[in-house]
Amino acid sequence: MNAFSIKDLENLSGIKAHTIRIWEQRYSFLKPQRSKSNIRYYGNEELKAVLNIALLNKYGFKISHIDKMTPGEVREKIISLSYAEAYQERFINELVQHMVDLDVAGFEETLNVYIRSRGIDKTISQLIFPFLEKIGILWLTNHMNVAQEHLVTNIIRQKLIVGIEGITLYTPPAKSIILFLPEGEHHELGLLYLYYLLKIREVQVLYLGANVPMKDLEFVAKLKHPHYIFTHITSIPGRFNFEKFIQQIHQRIPATQVVISGKLAQSYFKKIPPNISLKKSMEELLQQINSI
Fold it and tell me: Fewest Cβ atoms nearer than 10 Å: which of 44, 94, 109, 237?
């Protein structure tokens, strides 16, 4: 069983911690446990309950009514939601639930159902990337078990690669971009999603992958002269100095525009060199990609 904090539940469900505490007091579906130091924590069942209840509540069901439903009735109501947004959110929640249960078959089948319904392109943009954004907080707080992380990474990586390989370029790309992750960063899924987004826009991608030493990035950049360098940093060991990383890449590759996205970019507010650009949201990142 996982041990989630109330902040994890807030980030995964969109329900404020204050509201979750009120739900605990008034209703029976949440029963947190206490650590030896008396800190409240939640297990897999509590997480799944909050995800389902938050979805039904968002689309018109009263919490008091949901509290009286059986698990089967909750499931039926969720499936019956006809809103397009609810359909997407339901599948994202299912991915989270399969992940915490280590249900490999269920996780892949959920992706396959969405692919059959919406196609690989929309599955990547509407399902996979929002899912990765939602669970990114678990990587940062170490509340995801290594086995769960491998389950998610391996299956989604396969789907992203299928999507990338399925894109045919009919004209020679006019621009090139290096994609890489710095040393210590092994979470490749966000970078693969960037690869997909750039390739469908007919950009040549030089994919260096994860855990790339700065000297190797510098070597390729000076040899190939890319128009941009992109990196998407999800989670990295505590000893990683983001400010130092920014200064190093500026000093070594000052003539190339470098775009940095991901969790670390979102929380950095110091002055940055002129050739560095931090994208703090998916919207900002897409605007940058569309301008290339």
Answer: 237
